[in-house]
Every structure is written in C-alpha cells, then in structure tokens.
Specification:
The protein has a domain of 50 residues. It starts with a helix and ends in a 5-residue tail after the last helix. Helices cover 89% and strands 0% of the residues. The protein contains 2 helices and no strands. The radius of gyration is 28 Å and the shape is elongated. By secondary structure, the chain is mostly helical.
C-alpha cells in the first residue's frame, strides 16, 4: 500500500511539473516535438503491423491454394 501511495504522489508531481513546463515557450516546443515523435513511432508500428499482416495473409492464401490443388488432384481420376 505504501508503494502505491508513493506511485500516486509521483504521478501527481509529474503532472504538475509537466503542466508548468508546458506554459513556457521551451516547454511547448518540447511537448510539440515529443508529440510529433510519438505519432511517427505509432505510425511506424502500424505500418509494420499492416505489412506483416499482408505477408501472413499471402502465406495463408498460398497454403490454401496448394491444399485446394492437392485436393483436386486426389479427387480426379487418373488419365489412361
């Protein structure tokens, strides 16, 4: 419980300090840069996720095509 109280106090102090810092010109610039970098990071994560998802969907599609072709080959009678 004691650790939780210190955690809450730390969060509160951090919020107060960041709020006061954002009132200055340098603070506004800092938080603007931080926001830009955070957005770029999030976009990079999203882009990587979408690329990997597309790769996996292509791989699943290839496996499904092979399975379908194999099933068709097994079901067809042999040619004389």
């Amino acid at each position: 419980m004691k650790n939780f109280i210190w955690f809450v106090v730390g969060v509160g102090v951090g919020l107060v300090v960041s709020r006061e810092a954002s009132k200055t010109r340098q603070g506004k610039q800092f938080f603007s840069d931080l926001d830009t970098k955070a957005r770029e990071f999030g976009e990079a994560i999203s882009e990587g996720y979408r690329k990997r998802e597309a790769e996996l969907r292509d791989a699943i599609g290839d496996v499904a095509d092979v399975a379908t072709d194999s099933g068709d080959a097994i079901g067809k009678p042999a040619k004389p």
